[in-house]
Amino acid sequence: MNAKGNAATQKQAAMVFDLNKCMGCQTCSVACKTLWTRAEGQEYQWWCTVNTLPGRGHPRDWESMGGGYADDVPQAGRRPARQEWGGGWDFNYDEVLHSGKGQSVHLQVVGEQPEWGPNWDEDQGAGEYPNSYFFYLPRLCNHCTKPACVEACPRGAMSKREEDGIVLRDESRCRGYQFCLEACPYKKIYFNFAREVSEHCILCYPRLEQNVAPSCVRGCPGRAVWFGLLDDETSPVHKLVKKWEVALPLHPEYGTEPNVFYIPPILPARLNEANDFEEGQPRVPTEYLESLFGPRVRPALETLSREMESTRSGGKSELMDTLIAYWWKDMFKPFDQDPGEIEWSRTPGGQPGQGAG
Amino acid sequence: MQAVEPGGVSPYRFLLVAARLGSVRRRSQDVDMIKAQRVEAADSALIDPAGSEWRSAPSTRLSLEPTPLISQPSAYVQAKWETIDYGAIGNVSVQALHNDGGIFFRLQWNDATENDDIRDTDQFTDAAAVLFPVKEDAPLTSMGSPDEPVNAWYWRPDMETPFSVTSEGTSTTIRTIDPNLRGNGAHTGGAWAVVIGRALQSAGDGYVQLTAGEEGKVAFAVWQGGNDERAGLKAVTLEWQPLELEA
Ligand code: SF4
Ligand code: SF4
Question: What is the ipTM of this complex?
């Protein structure tokens, strides 16, 4: 174990999402939800979320909540309140489905009315027609190389695994003090009100230990996400992050060195008044992408454009082949074991286990 | 019982400012003897903070200070709370009684906000603890050491019974359920009155053992939930107070 977590581990698990391919179908979010967060106290938890950008995200306006590091100094953060997360609502199912009022009463949230939710501003985006734009951003814990959450915990309850850099919490040590929620600049930790402990994405480590890729990865019907060890030169994750440098961390300025990376989106060029594409005028402002992924966005976009151009004119490109992902299982080798072929044991807490998916 | 100072005019804010300027804190309360008088009363009467026995029991008012920032165990907590006041409860009035079977501490402090449950992520509960050295010279600020552990009785308004907390130094606390430990609190008129009581002797790893007629040491801590206080963010007596159990 790496007590305070402020150093690279032996190996580091990593993910790459291609924001050009993600179609916002939420299969990854639901795959995670059904596998890990169905117990009491987890109703509002979505360890994997997919939000429309530009947008306020989940929890609402999370980018303004602080945390992370500036010049290696921890930055104060705040904990999102329950309403800023939203979700986990109770509905009047009984009234509508079992009391004969199906024709007179509609399904609605009971109690405090929602003001926000995990996917509240879906498809709103920005810009004026015909140059309006949006794209989807899947987010989960980044299993950071410098996890602010691990450092913040006064209990030493959190740690980064040496063998794959996954950030985990020892629940027997967690007291629900929520310093981790404050310190995480990505706001990817949830508080379980029923058990009074904090919880976050565990990168499906029980699956990884059986060479099964995380549930969100295997579930993606868009072939939009790769998984592997960052230093495994045969892994597409290594190729996209290290070799081609087209996969970038979200908000690198937060200083935690995330291990979830994104291929920035290239939308069609802007339309001019004559309704013609104006090449060189990106519809998603490059400055906006820089505000998300930092200054390395420009060279990454240039590499992507150059390689696209080269295949269009009949050339071959390892980068384009990797991004197209001809062979599904190549996206997460060697974690390509079929979960359906494994005998999973059920956990005593009544969790669904690590089953198929 | 001594009158409790009205909220809002306690000197603790001044002290916080003084501390920030680097001056040494006033520690006038350091050697107040806490005397646990022996009474003929049932446990059920003593565990009630409004019980009649408490009306005549001597009361000692102890001033509390924020735990030192330097002893907070993470850089994050040190960085954030460098500029945020914590340890908001400036003093606590302490009474102690024993009936030869059990010992009871009644803590009373001003607190305008009753934080009795965790309803959202923007709040914590109020809480209080009574702390004992398990070995005589156990260090207080670090919550004991491997050789000299400490034992705390930690009360929270949303929990059925207090926890017995054993500790061998910063970040090492372990919570256990001690069937001999009980707690009872009420928030009325802008103040908490809480009784925490336990059998003088209670079998358990790292539990303090007390005996009528003997002396020991005790310390106190209070958390202001409405001020985001939890873990090491609390108001404490910075020194052990001598404790005497009447024979
Ligand atoms: S994303 Fe947040 S919770 Fe996950 S490792 Fe980084 S700092 Fe910790
Ligand atoms: S499953 Fe794939 S395509 Fe669907 S939202 Fe998730 S990452 Fe995007």
Answer: 0.91
